[in-house]
Design a protein that fits this description.
With 401 residues, this protein is α+β, with helices and mostly antiparallel strands. It has 19 helices and eleven strands. The strands form four sheets. Strands 2-3-7-6 form a four-stranded antiparallel sheet. A three-stranded antiparallel sheet has the order 9-11-10. Strand 4 and strand 5 form a beta hairpin. It is globular, with a radius of gyration of 24 Å.
Length: 401
Amino acid sequence: MGRKSAEQREREQIQLYTGYQNNYKKSNTLINAKGRSTLLGMKLFTIGIIHAKYDDDTNEIVSVVYSGQLKKMLGSTSGSLFTHIKEQIHPKSKKNPSLLDWRIIYEDDKAKKISASNVITDAEFADGVLKITFNTKLKDYIIGLNKNFTMLDYEEQFHLSSQYSYRLYEMCKQQIDYINYVEKRKGPIEWTCNLTELKLKLGIIDAREYPEIEELLKKENPDYDRIEEISKNSAKKYSAYSDFKKNALDKAAREVTEKTSLDVDYEENKAGRGGKVRGITFRVKYKEADVVEETQPKKISEEEMDNIIDDIYEACMGRLKVSECRAIAKESGYNKDKAIKACNLAMKNIDNISNLPGWIIAAIRGEYEDRKIIGKKTSGFSKFEQRSYDYNELEKMLTEN
């Protein structure tokens, strides 16, 4: 693959503004990993996964992310971006998690084999560019996933305000998608998790702090009571179930429900003397009303469709073919206001545009605003607009879908 040209880097730097990458694949092995992280660390890891590329020449899996992309995806952050990223790469305290702490553990009790591999081998931030290098041993968990993965939406995730909500969203999404799409059983689902295992997955209990816990987790049936007992000896919060429920579990379930496409509820599984909570059964479903509203196209008549196509043609002063107008109308969901807004914005910037239909389609997908476009006379946008679209194929795809 070799070194990328400046034009390729510019295209990647601006790519997120078109909204192409909201959905991404994450290996279920990574979702199920146990470990501790900060919310920002999880987001940076996600960004790294989204942008990871395999270089045949160097045999490396590298993610290169520019500060503009980071700010766009992360939203507003108080303080210096460099300071925040520095803390994730080299924490001030050894007790704080680092990006390089992500690990995958391979276990085979029958063969008596155990091994662990760091997911990230190198991370650096310089000249406004974050570079993350992944372990090539884990290529099958990062690049070209075609099985054992979950499709996630980073925009949904990045609206979540705690690491517990972030992790719970991934776990619930994995469970419901497996039941709905792999086992072909539609509708709400239930899944149960041992309480201590849930704390491990949420990062509340960090196995790396205790060699004994790491040894217990290697067993086929870990002694979770012993793990809980060991973890209580630390200064970690939420050792009491009431604290865990109030400050982590309740808040996470509520926030995932409020801010994502999932509706999450749970019940406690109690056993033994005094009804001690041993596990949690989650009930998860998609918000059907929201899904229908977002995915079902508005039903309009042939006459209304033709009128919108005519309006697009006139807004662009006859510069487009009818097939291109039809593709733009289709992309907008036959939303006249959305299509015309993109066309008007394009005409304001027509001197900087060499591929008008592609620019308008990108504007519709990215919902550009005047402040993001006007005055941008650099080559970055014009080069991005000139990517080689096959508009006959695009029109066919939009029509069929």
